[in-house]
Amino acid sequence: MKPLVYTGTISYCLYLVHLGVFLVFNSNTGQNLLRSPLGNPVHDMAIVALSFAACYAVATISWYSFETPILKLKEHFKVGKQTRVATDSSDKPLEAVS
User: How far apart are CA 95 and CA 86, in angstroms?
Assistant: First the structure.
């Protein structure tokens, strides 16, 4: 269950980086793994597995070096409970109608 929870934690970054990582792997191998069948399925599966591992690595680095410090900034901006008051066009509060 923990791997699934961790994947959910870094899922947004996985979404952001997956295409770039797959494009890098495709350009370095000279093959388009997503569109055309290739001759050696073991080689193709290894490249896909390495691509997924690279996506997880990049997302993990981003989570700990970029996203976590930014999320810690929320501690400095405490916001209390806010209430809204209905106003008319002159920005005067409207009275409750019973």
Answer: 9
